[in-house]
Amino acid sequence: MSGQFPDEPDSPELSQLYDDFKREHLTPLWTQLDELMPLQPKPKALPHVWRWDTLFPLAARSGDLVPVGRGGERRAIALANPGLPGTAYATPTLWAAIQYLGPHEVAPEHRHSQNAFRFVCEGEGVWTVVNGDPVAMSRGDFLLTPGWNFHGHHNETDQPMAWIDGLDIPFVHYTDTSFFEFGSERVTDEATPPISRSERLWAHPGLRPLSGLQNTVSSPIGAYRWVHTDAALDEQLALEDEGYPATVELGHAAIRYTNPTTGGDVLPTIRAEFHRLRAGATTRRRREVGSSVWQVFDGAGTVTLADETHEVAKGDLFVVPSWVPWTFRAAPGDSTFDLFRFSDAPVVERLHFDRVQIDTENDPKDAR
Amino acid sequence: MSGQFPDEPDSPELSQLYDDFKREHLTPLWTQLDELMPLQPKPKALPHVWRWDTLFPLAARSGDLVPVGRGGERRAIALANPGLPGTAYATPTLWAAIQYLGPHEVAPEHRHSQNAFRFVCEGEGVWTVVNGDPVAMSRGDFLLTPGWNFHGHHNETDQPMAWIDGLDIPFVHYTDTSFFEFGSERVTDEATPPISRSERLWAHPGLRPLSGLQNTVSSPIGAYRWVHTDAALDEQLALEDEGYPATVELGHAAIRYTNPTTGGDVLPTIRAEFHRLRAGATTRRRREVGSSVWQVFDGAGTVTLADETHEVAKGDLFVVPSWVPWTFRAAPGDSTFDLFRFSDAPVVERLHFDRVQIDTENDPKDAR
Amino acid sequence: MSGQFPDEPDSPELSQLYDDFKREHLTPLWTQLDELMPLQPKPKALPHVWRWDTLFPLAARSGDLVPVGRGGERRAIALANPGLPGTAYATPTLWAAIQYLGPHEVAPEHRHSQNAFRFVCEGEGVWTVVNGDPVAMSRGDFLLTPGWNFHGHHNETDQPMAWIDGLDIPFVHYTDTSFFEFGSERVTDEATPPISRSERLWAHPGLRPLSGLQNTVSSPIGAYRWVHTDAALDEQLALEDEGYPATVELGHAAIRYTNPTTGGDVLPTIRAEFHRLRAGATTRRRREVGSSVWQVFDGAGTVTLADETHEVAKGDLFVVPSWVPWTFRAAPGDSTFDLFRFSDAPVVERLHFDRVQIDTENDPKDAR
Amino acid sequence: MSGQFPDEPDSPELSQLYDDFKREHLTPLWTQLDELMPLQPKPKALPHVWRWDTLFPLAARSGDLVPVGRGGERRAIALANPGLPGTAYATPTLWAAIQYLGPHEVAPEHRHSQNAFRFVCEGEGVWTVVNGDPVAMSRGDFLLTPGWNFHGHHNETDQPMAWIDGLDIPFVHYTDTSFFEFGSERVTDEATPPISRSERLWAHPGLRPLSGLQNTVSSPIGAYRWVHTDAALDEQLALEDEGYPATVELGHAAIRYTNPTTGGDVLPTIRAEFHRLRAGATTRRRREVGSSVWQVFDGAGTVTLADETHEVAKGDLFVVPSWVPWTFRAAPGDSTFDLFRFSDAPVVERLHFDRVQIDTENDPKDAR
Question: What is the pLDDT of residues D125-148, one digit of tens each?
């Protein structure tokens, strides 16, 4: 702020004016402009890495000490961004948690306007029941529980299981759009089929049922199975090997999960993607308006967030706040570096605030 | 037309007026209204059935007598609606033909603004090469060559192969929107992979490549494989058996082929669907604005078009003109009655002329 | 067609094959390709000019000789393109007619799926009643009667009145999408307000009523008044004079009539525009896929259609078939050259067949 | 929260677990659920009324004490919601301020990703220059400066002028999407035309220039003039008097300002409307998801927000947070009760969180 517009009034008259403003619930713009309207995004949220080796044991301890049931609803432990103290938010818009369900435990049914998904980094044996449709959970699967669908979880095994929950809780809280309703104490269908009815109707490539011709706000597919994600990424790298354009950049394959009724994002507020880097590959440095949460699914490598580089491995989660530059590098060797990502891109894009900046070797440019 | 407005003038003055109209390239509405603007669609096209047992041998004879190559371009024999004499049109908007390619023959590459697909009722061994991407053809596959994509066909076997071509040739001719360009005399890629590159990139359920985020007017999927279509239909009938809503009506499963970038029709002018009736099932009588061509893919049954009922079997093709009521009945027994359909529904719907009328037992209603 | 694929069979076997095709309602592609799929649009419709000096007296004579009433419905005389003999079509898709209503005559109410508009080149005193809303007609006004709205006309004066009707009759006839229903013998509201209720609700720039928040397929505005069209065109030329970009090209102002609920075309099948050329101005030569009908509203000039140049004056109508190049030149002097246009552009664009070619001085290019 | 899930740990082990969570930047859901995901929106923002009689004199005092110029940029004093202490926000998403410009003062040019508008409750004599286009400001006018357009203001008179600024500053701050750039110290065009070039091109009812066929994210109209708004509202009440449906409910006329290229909202994040109540009329009690700011433009009446009723008069501003019920009652007498409104409805609707509840006399229902 220039000296012309001091934060602190320098005359009795101005001091009196500022007092009068305060009493009348008014705030002058000129003392706040820099903070309110920065030249480029200055997120309070910080880039941060959470380690699976830390997360999972803490979740397991909570499994011993805290029951799961009506009232608390879920044994979910949220990533609390160090730059957003006092909240349980990974980013201003996104909530990310590890959820843990012990052997034969049940998380009761409820529904809410918040949109949710689950991503399974390891384990199996839990079924999520969405509006009465049981959806098996296994490593690599991406599951949806869009806003206002009843859902509960139950573990049918003698082993605990943990996974990642992603929701738009912060955004819904911020915009005062939360509705919540309790449902059944137990899940409404205890069947344990390998695939859900939603998949049987909808998860056929390029086909839609004639009984489902109305487009839906969120995807009607309950689970995106690992076998398909893995195959799609493998094919991109194979096509690149054969000389065809199929990847985002050299050695970097990626898919977006979509709503088959529209081709757009799976949820109105959340985008989800899966990225695979060939061993030794590096991404170009880029930054985007909007925030993301990533989880390493397999392999190892480094992620550079702003100017700090982190070694990451399977299960590790990290956050990229708005406009923070990021670069990934896959460790050399034989295995790919696989990462799941979710972001608030639909919010940013539908309201037309999206910008992307990608460094090219000699020519960084704003690709707005 | 009421007697008040005679087609033939009844006075010398009126006769002179009508002569003067004609000389000045003018036509009065009042003598033409009934024909021009009927109370409901009165298509000149007629419901008609073409038999595979007739079609295929004729195609084979043309294979002996007529070469395939530059100039004629394709050995395709079109269904010529008996109500549209002098044309080669199945309906006013749709062209449907059997195309026949002898052992090791090549149909040269070209491109045109007309949108095209192939549907394979039997045989295999031909590859369609679309913009350089070889697409294998096998029984039950549905293949796309959207407008302005170069494409050719080559038979890699010692057997002939035949399939169905569907295009919007009549519509494009009528609207004067045809552009055509010759390409390579031979196909530009003679490889014979089991699946195309387009499928490797795009035919993963609910996923899209990050390298293909621009929506496209037509589907980027080159072939919709039978294995997926068959599974989707089986699942609908199985879900119905389990008590869940999944079918169009009792015993009637159906899918629509879609453009995964939008969830909409595969081509701007052509809708394609596949219908499966459980043995013994009957569809409700319905009529729709717009015309369709159907091919029996498997099983047997009867189709009632307006008031005439036809026994049909594998490979038989039939046409349903606009607003002609149709009912299908699957033969009793063990096997399903499988039918492929294409129509001009995208034309009708995008221009908002769509209406459907479905008979319910006691309550026929206009479901506009 | 190359000699390899003769239209006439040259062997007994081939002759027999062609006979068998015919008997089975089949037509080979290879004898028809050139005509069916030309290298670029080859419309049968011809560029043609109809003179107001001829049209109006003929319409007046029909006013003396032919009644208007139920059965014939309208005293409308259609432009019959010389290239489309036996039809009443201006172009393959568009119908254009002069409608004439004598003093105190009434054209009875009806409705149809065909979309219609009126454009008034001269005169006043008739009200079109659309779904019970009386809409005054005056020189320069553009009025809508979208598909399936009841409408009738009544002349409240002692003078006859004539105007132009534009409809998608040919397109609806071709696609077998016609529905028609008779209504009241007289108009349902004989009031003669200066503006319609639809305008009072909807014709406020940039505003929409909260009671009309559903988007509609066609524009809810019943009449686009000349005062607004004229002002909009004047402003474009004035802005050009002041050095700002506002015109299509130098000296060529133009507006498109729009549906205020979407910003798109007024009718699903018909686009309407108004063009104004500064005295002495010339348009670049351009051609477009799709057909148009133009009427000179004021001033004088020449229109070059393909290679023929016509002098045209107030009231003259002319047709530009698909892909026929056109250039206009305004006569020198003081007055502008004003032209109304309607076309089938929404059909062409919604089905993605649109292409435009505009000549620049040395560099014609395909601006697809 | 049920006793089963205490906020405060009751065992040393649990206490240790919570400590470990905190150290690892983790927060359990079960202690926060009620606050994070309420059963229905529980906005922190409060309904509140600010009086013009208070606001304007304070703005005038700041005009004497605080300069306007580069750095502070604008002499704008924001409504600070009493429920959102420490912020300058009217609601979580919306910023509303009175801006004051003394005689011959200039507010320098800048641009930002934030979307902005001005609404003029009284006065005239200032021009807003938007990307070089001078836009006059007068009582009742609604002016746009969409995101990333350069804009400045200058007062050409010897009188001060004040108006209301509305922006999405809180939303942009929250989502970390702010970009800001300084422009010219003075306005780039000091002309003072009565209407802007944007209006001359775009503010003609139902017409768009052929030079502006690309749809735009925000409205291209720089100012919506009072004369049109007033006429549109008058016509709705007159049509109601004549027995036609034209109003929101009895005696309640309303328009929405729209983007003529799409028919949708003027800005991606902000909806703007104008409401007029007939003297003595009352609105039904309603509540909506999303927040609004209203300003009384003319007349007098009461507004009931939740359970509190306020007398309001010209210039008074009030805030309706999400899901707070509101009812308005126009004072009896001769004059209408006129109110301007803006809201975050585009954010809520594009992300599909919208719900409305309207009380009918005996039958309140959720009209989701």
Answer: 999 999 999 999 999 999 999 999
Cβ neighbours for A248, distance < 8 A, ≥ 6 positions apart: A254, A275, A283, B210, B211
Q: Which two tokens stand for residue B300?
A: 């047997």
Cβ atoms C177, C347 nearer than 8 A? no
What kind of fold does domain A48-203 have according to CATH?
Jelly Rolls (2.60.120)
pLDDT higher than threshold 60 for residue D362 = no
Sheet with A151-155, edge to edge strand ranges: A133-138, A124-130, A151-155, A106-112, A180-182
What pLDDT digit, counting tens, does each position of B198-224 carry? 999 999 999 999 998 899 999 999 999
Domain D48-222 has CATH 1.25.40.10: no
pLDDT of residue D70: 86
Nearest-CB residue to C204 (from D208, D213, D232): D232
From the list A210, A236, A244, which residue is nearest B248 (CB)? A210
For the ranges B9-23, C217-231, D63-77, D178-192, the one whose mean pLDDT is highest: C217-231
Q: Chain A: which residues have CB within 8 Å of chain B?
A: 197, 200-211, 213, 215, 219, 221, 224, 228-229, 231-232, 235-236, 238-239, 244-248, 254-263, 266, 273
pLDDT digits (tens, 9 = 90+) for A282-340: 999 999 999 999 999 999 999 999 999 999 999 999 999 999 999 999 999 989 999 99
Class of domain D224-366: mainly beta
Length of chain A in terms of residues written: 368
**Which residue is closest to B245 within chain A, CA to CA?**
A211
Distance, CA of A322 to CA of A182 (rounded, Å): 34
Q: How many CB atoms lie within 10 A of CB C147?
A: 23
Q: How many residues does chain D have?
A: 368
Q: What share of chain A in percent tops pLDDT 70?
A: 95
pLDDT at B28 over 60: yes
CA A177 to chain centre: 19
Chain C residue with Cα closest to B5: C72
User: Could you tell me if C165 and C94 are in contact, meaning their C-beta atoms sit under 8 angstroms apart?
Assistant: no
Domains C48-212 and C223-366 share a fold: yes
Phi, psi dihedrals of residue C338, rounded to the nearest 5°: -110, 130
C-alpha distance from residue A166 to each of A58, A76, A130, A276, B208 (Å):
19, 11, 16, 20, 21
How many CA atoms does the CB half-sphere of C17 hold within 13 Å? 23
Fold of B223-366: Jelly Rolls (2.60.120)
- Residues C20-58 pLDDT 10s: 999 999 999 998 888 999 999 999 999 999 999 999 999
- Percentages of chain D per state (helix, strand, coil), in multiples of 5: 20, 35, 50
Would you state the structure tokens that stand for residue A290, as one six-digit string?
């909007």
Pick among 3.40.50.1100, 2.30.40.10, 2.60.120.10, 3.30.230.10: CATH of B48-209 = 2.60.120.10
Q: Chain C contacts of D247, Cβ < 8 Å?
A: 211
- Edge to edge, the sheet with strand C301-305 lists C308-312, C301-305, C326-330, C286-288, C356-358, C365-366
Mutate to test the interface with A, among D94, D176, D368 (most CBs of A within 10 A): D176
CA–CA gap between residue A5 and residue B10 (Å, rounded): 93
